[in-house]
Amino acid sequence: xxxxxxxxxxxxxxxxxxxxxxxxxxxxxxxxxxxxxxxxxxxxxxxxxxxxxxxxxxxxxxxxxxxxxxxxxxxxxxxxxxxxxxxxxxxxxxxxxxxxxxxxxxxxxxxxxxxxxxxxxxxxxxxxxxxxxxxxxxxxxxxxxxxxxxxxxxxxxxxxxxxxxxxxxxxxxxxxxxxxxxxxxxxxxxxxxxxxxxxxxxxxxxxxxxxxxxxxxxxxxxxxxxxxxxxxxxxxxxxxxxxxxxxxxxxxxxxxxxxxxxxxxxxxxxxxxxxxxxxxxxxxxxxxxxxxxxxxxxxxxxxxxxxxxxxxxxxxxxxxxxxxxxxxxxxxxxxxxxxxxxxx
Length: 344
Fold this sequence. Notes:
alpha/beta, Rossmann fold, 2 domains, 5-stranded parallel sheet, 14 strands, elongated
């Protein structure tokens, strides 16, 4: 019997940050006889019948660690084909002393720009490290394999955008300084000064004091640039509403700092929405004309203007090409196969 153990924080299709983990787990379950998920929290009915969740929740940090070790130890018989630590490197560090003596493969999935001593330790003790791209893992290591992102294409259908006046821009994600939204606002001002009929809508949560302060700074910058209703800096939206947002906008703008390819870029591509992005990792997804230097609002404004000149049919064809690339290289199925290949 092929059994796989997967360690993550939450198994909840309604979670504000980790909902996308659920279709990835569903895809993994389709390739094994049994999927066991160790998690801090879980929603009922999120996974298929051959998957089960074992919780290690505890209010104390030490208690979570003890419960995690006990839960993992109980799942090592019968022996799993591998153990996957999802995004939190501490899971790999804590699990390695149990797994390595038994020769059980330990795969760390991590895609973020922030390195840490814990991440270095996790990379050292893992059998393999999986990331979207070798450049989306912040440390140099021969263990790193780029396997693409895991996008559920069924969640983001390709919809025809309604005809309307002006160009509608969308940005999604937390109000973090790492998102580079100041540059986007300044590019919007330049676009309006060019005479373009363009509007930007931003949706995202503020999950820390830093993000709340940054949101206030962006509101002040909007006033300083006299953007008014041309820039809407709105709050978070339920994940179920994201496909409708894609359908209502012409172009996603993403200025996330290098090293962490924002998943929303791939999701927009799956929904046939063209994307302007600055992260160099997207050079395998987006053509040159849809990429821009991160700190250059003038160049971003030029890219927006060039896109505005594209006829509707050209924009639609571009969106379909993006979806085809996501389906080929970044689907939940290709991601699950990549993860399982690393356990061998």
